[in-house]
Automatic annotation (TrEMBL):
Transmembrane segments: none
Entry protein name: Antitoxin YwqK
Stored InterPro entries: MORN_2
Gene3D superfamilies according to UniProt: Histone H3 K4-specific methyltransferase SET7/9 N-terminal domain
Signal peptide (UniProt feature, chain positions): 1-28
Sorted UniProt keywords: Signal
Amino acid sequence: MKFLSNMTTKIFNIILILTTSFSFSQNADRIYYDKDWKETTKENASFYRIIPSKKIGNLFLMQDFYSNNTPQFQGYALQSDENSYVGDIVWYDENGFDTAVYQYYNNTDVPVLTYYYPNGKKRKTIEYKKGRKSGFSIVYHQDGTVLMKGKYLDGKPVEGDFEEVRNWDDYRNNKSEEETYKEQTEVMIETAPVMVEDYQSGTPKKVIKNLVKKKIFWINSKQLAQEIWYDIEYGQMHPFKQVNYDKTGKVLQTINQNDFEQYGSDISNGTFYDYYLQNKFAVGLKSKTTYKQRIKSGEEIRYFPNGKIQELTKYLNGEKVGDEIVYDKNETLVIKRVYKNGAPFEGNFDENFSGSLLVNANYVKGVIDGEAIAKKQENDSIVAKGIYKNGKPYNGTFIIESGKDRHELIHVIDFKKNGLQKVFSYNIDNVLETYTCVNDVKNGETVFYENGEVTGKLEYKNDLPFEGKLVEAENATIYKNGAIAEEIFYRSKYERTDENNILRSKYYTNGKLTKIVNRSFTIADKVQDSYEGIYKDEKPYSGYFATDFHEFNHVNYYENGSIKYQYSNDYLENLEKYQHPYYDIKSTYKDGKIVDGVEYIKLDRQFISKYWKNGTLQSFDVDLFAMHYFNRFHFELKNNGIEITELKKEQKGRITIEKNGNKYTSQLIIDDKVVMSSTSIDLENEMPEQTGSIVYYESNQIIKAKILNSNETDDEGRRASEMFYAIFASTANSAKTIEENFNSIAQDFSISKNIEAMFGKGDNADVLTGLRFNESKKPEIGILLLKNNNKSYNLKSFFDGKVVEEKKNIDIKNIREEVKKMNAILEKKMNENFK
């Protein structure tokens, strides 16, 4: 068995050698390079390059090899600059497998680029136009027959078969053209329709799709390893079918459209096959992983290049479970470990830590036990080595996670931290902090770093800050004799070493806040470098105190413990100055309330700005917020009416209220046109004096009524002024003066957390019912209320112009219940009428 395994390895290595530049080396010279790509002798070489190179136009085909004769690089470059690549380029690892493949613009005068197998035979040709692939791309077998032929149009694969189906905008500029080449024109796809199965619906129904295929062939063979169908309709690349084959042509799996991610190209249900590739040809299987509903479920097997199993892992619902087995190239068992619920349970494990470290540890029944070694992945050097007992660090050095993006290298003796400890984020060499412990208690100096520079030093005593400077994120705290003395807030954590970037400083006496010096804003009528505020009993007493909100900030000015002024700005005009606001609006307080200037109220979905003068509200703004929506409504008491302006639509409306005798008439006017009116009526009159709808409502145990009449017959016009109608019909109260309505509307907006619930606080606050009249002033549908001389009420319901039910002498305390019963009957009739 071992003999066969060794023979397989040797045969595989021979295949690799035979597929290198053997034929080129027969009649070509070489330039040798060391590991740093400096010219050297053959004996000291890590790489070599074939010369003379193939040349075409102003290009040459650069072909580099490892010293073991396997390819290292192939691609075209400018003769004037070998680092300016053109067309497709590929890098290989020491086994000759593809490691990185990129496509570059071809803005040269060479319209066709030809690529070669390592033995010198033609591998593929690609046509270009205006920098991108345009025309035919042909891949050849080593015997010269065509394996694949596909057509590009302005960089887009539009028809046929391709070794790669990649985004047509995924082109790179070479160094010589990064600044000059800007033109990237998108062209509509033009391709012939192809009939394929509609796998989305799972039926044999035929549909028209725009189709291209990506194919991977087994190396030195005409047998497919994998092919993927792409639907490129509407210019998008969506896989809808995939078939995988073994080297004999046996179908391993077929994946249909429902088995791909809905909005991606990854497999959702099925097996993902990953191959060792050389020039996009499959040399061997690298791994296969089973997915169910987009997560790993089942076996994941990794293979050596010789086809032998390297590692076998089992997954359940995306988590590792059961045995994970690792073999060497000779099929000898190296490691067997057990996972439980996705976590190490039994055995020896290598775990990635902080992105750059690898920690090797032994687990017994889910608990770390014994020696753990942490190494740098880049050079395999040991950074920590210690013994665990019962899952806890016992003796030695250890890497632990101590917080979000925070890791530590700790020194432990007998389960307790002792000596110097180091804190880092991801890179262990980029130390953020060092501190000293004695028997798990901080005692001694803690040093803070940024980019290797010391930003602060702080002495601890008995685990508490005592003397020095504590640095955290954008803040720094200075301690003296065990008490906080000063807090410093910087513009950002990257500028905290620069004293010119201090936003504000807080000062303490005996640990109590006494003063703040703020440099984060400017006040228009008192421009200075900083603004000072004095605290008394840790409360604002005199000077300037800035708020620290996310959406809206302002500054309060105190004298003798009482707020006197507020400095603010129009935040819409100062969005770009949020980092250092400029406050040019001054408001004056009296008895704790603003009497001159602007008062601000911030709720969940609205922001209110009230403009006061001598204690009287002159106008107010209502800013409404929603997802992807903003609008401002300006309300102003003007010319005996309430004028409303909508910022978004630049539309104006106006509400007026007039009293004629004992009746009140309110009107909504838009563009000098009365679009809705409301008139109070007497409950003694059975017939209204105008058409419209009667609304009955209860106010202070008195039933009142009004007629709402809309003159706007255009539904679109009404929707365009929806807020105006809502405010007028539901919020304005015709029994109040225009000034009372103005203040009431402002108050409603200022306290309501739900805009929709706010409407209905005017005449309709306690709506009982309503009745609609037709153009002949005849009742059509609803309930009519009439008042009797004995202060009781008669009720009469209508449907389709006919009386349905009648009730007499109903006391006011019972009206709501009787109306509820009559409305239920009307609702039933409406439902029956719609059937």
